[in-house]
């Protein structure tokens, strides 16, 4: 294997030293003109199968620990950010339905959410305001952030699991499955 050229090495150095994932424009601002895609492809290939990988999350690039090596880094570290059930449900609704308003979140959940729930998600950097809907009252809409993708190891929102994936993993409540079966039976019943 040949060593990367100076341009690819510069891209590697910028990404290695970056405090956060970088967009193509941000990388280019550091390294100047060149075949950035080719350099990223080369580095992505060179780091495949190693302890760290070059990955793209959304429109940003960064180095991360290889998934099969992460357990070596989890020795004594406790994740202090525990979400409540309301927080998890709210985050899931935003991720699957974005952009979404507070009223739409509440309609989907069937209960009101406290302001603190959205605040926790925004403090975590997983959710951000995304403007206002052009309807009476102009409610604020919320979307997920690139940090959400990075934290959950997703390249894009298209990588979120679908209903079949959730069912296969056993993550659907028996109540959800019973309601789904009832809806299917009702649709099949001609009366």
From TrEMBL:
It comes from the Bacteria. Gene3D superfamilies: Winged helix-like DNA-binding domain superfamily/Winged helix DNA-binding domain. InterPro entries: ScpB_csome_segregation (IPR005234), WH-like_DNA-bd_sf (IPR036388), WH_DNA-bd_sf (IPR036390). The keyword Cell division applies. Signal peptide: none annotated. The keyword Transmembrane does not apply. Keywords: Cell cycle, Cell division, Chromosome partition, Cytoplasm. GO terms for biological process: cell division; chromosome separation. Pfam families: SMC_ScpB (PF04079). PANTHER family: SEGREGATION AND CONDENSATION PROTEIN B. This is Segregation and condensation protein B. The lineage of its organism: Bacteria, Pseudomonadati, Pseudomonadota, Alphaproteobacteria, Sphingomonadales.
């Amino acid at each position: 294997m040949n060593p990367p050229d100076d341009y690819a090495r510069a891209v590697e150095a910028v990404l290695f030293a970056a405090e956060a994932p970088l967009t193509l424009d941000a990388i280019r601002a550091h390294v100047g003109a060149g075949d950035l895609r080719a350099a990223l492809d080369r580095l992505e290939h060179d780091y495949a199968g190693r302890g760290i990988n070059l990955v793209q999350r959304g429109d940003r690039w960064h180095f991360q620990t290889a998934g099969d090596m992460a357990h070596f880094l989890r020795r004594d570290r406790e994740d202090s950010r525990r979400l409540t059930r309301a927080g998890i449900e709210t985050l899931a609704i935003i991720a699957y339905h974005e952009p979404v308003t507070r009223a739409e979140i509440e309609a989907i959940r069937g209960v009101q959410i406290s302001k603190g729930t959205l605040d926790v998600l925004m403090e975590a950097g997983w959710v951000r305001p995304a403007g206002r809907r052009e309807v009476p009252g102009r409610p604020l809409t919320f979307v997920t952030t690139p940090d959400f993708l990075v934290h959950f190891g997703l390249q894009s929102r298209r990588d979120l699991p679908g209903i079949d994936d959730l069912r296969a993993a056993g993550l659907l409540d028996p109540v959800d499955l019973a309601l789904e079966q009832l809806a299917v039976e009702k649709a099949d019943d001609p009366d």
